[in-house]
Amino acid sequence: MTDVKQVLRTQRIETPSWGYANSGTRFKVFPQQGVPRDPYEKVADAATVHRFTGVAPTVALHIPWDTVDDYQKLASYAREVGVGLGTINSNVFQDPDYMLGSVTHPDPRVRRKATDHLLACVDIMDATGSRDLKLWFSDGTNYPGQDDITARQDRLAAALSEVYDRLGSEQRMLLEYKFFEPAFYLTDVPDWGTAFSHCLRLGERAQVVIDTGHHAPGTNIEFIVAVLLRAGKLGGFDFNSRFYADDDLMVGAADPFGLFRIMHEIVQAGVVGPAGGIAFMLDQCHNIEPKIPAMIRSVMNVQEATAKALLVDRAALRQAQQAGDVLGANAALMDAYNTDVRPLLAELRSEDGLDPDPVAAYHRSGYADQIRADRADGQAAGWGA
Ligand code: LRH
Ligand code: MN
Ligand code: MN
């Protein structure tokens, strides 16, 4: 049990700035009281999540949603409140110029503009001290024949390599894929294979990021995890959960067993902690639920899945696998999955000076009342603001 706790102590989960802001669906954004009005307040909320969970020490930024005049100032504010600035997420999916694509657009002027944004994100990383640049492209087409598939791949490769060459020696590029939306016929980076082939050509510091909500229903995500890990090409996760498509609900809410199966591969590869080089990020929108408790709950869900994966009796599992004992091997996994790890995690938190129940501690803290009062005036920052 001490071993399990020691590994859990090394775990780091990054929360997304946009998960603290107002968000919604394309039908409606329901504003909440006390949400951040600017990136500083998002960072303050992320620090609050870290204060109660102890395992969420960084917050990811999304540019331009989190544009500030001075990124070093934001980074030092973050340090003051107890967190660091993490992954920089680029955004080439909202400017009207990108209707037909960003870095794959047929017009070289639009491609230049999109690539310049990605390069500007690396400048921001230099100022914030961020390691990772996360790239997601909404690029694609809606109709067969609309554009040339191969030419678009070539344009994408050219932009990626320009940005890759701009990275510092400690910086990485994480390429995210998604099978559809907003494009409905063809997406230029639809799957892990496409992302993997681009990363392979770029070099060691280009890696694939798996957003758990970005697959067709029924996709075996842990298989993708295992294949990418084996190739040394798994850079990180955007964790969330989904019932239908890219729902961005709380990780572990829809399919806790799927999350466990992913974490089992991570544990087997020995890459739970930061030394493993995998960025464990959340990418969620809390549209109808209070945002900070939702983030705390999500962090705890990842911890619970990890604890269960750490409890797998791997010697018994291996023995059963080698003996061809199908049911025995399956039971070794299921026994761990069916273990209630909440007491173990509560104990771990108490040992580390945290409240054993982070959600209850947050509610008792008065932070929610405080932000409701402090942020009563001004315009709330929102998804896309
Ligand atoms: C795209 C995505 C990507 C974006 C985020 C807001 O669906 O997962 O990671 O940056 O949503
Ligand atoms: Mn994502
Ligand atoms: Mn998504």
UniProtKB/TrEMBL annotation:
It comes from the Bacteria. GO terms for molecular function: L-rhamnose isomerase activity; manganese ion binding. The keyword Aminoacyl-tRNA synthetase does not apply. Its EC number is 5.3.1.14. GO terms for biological process: L-lyxose metabolic process; rhamnose catabolic process. Pfam families: RhaA. This is L-rhamnose isomerase. It comes from Natronosporangium hydrolyticum.
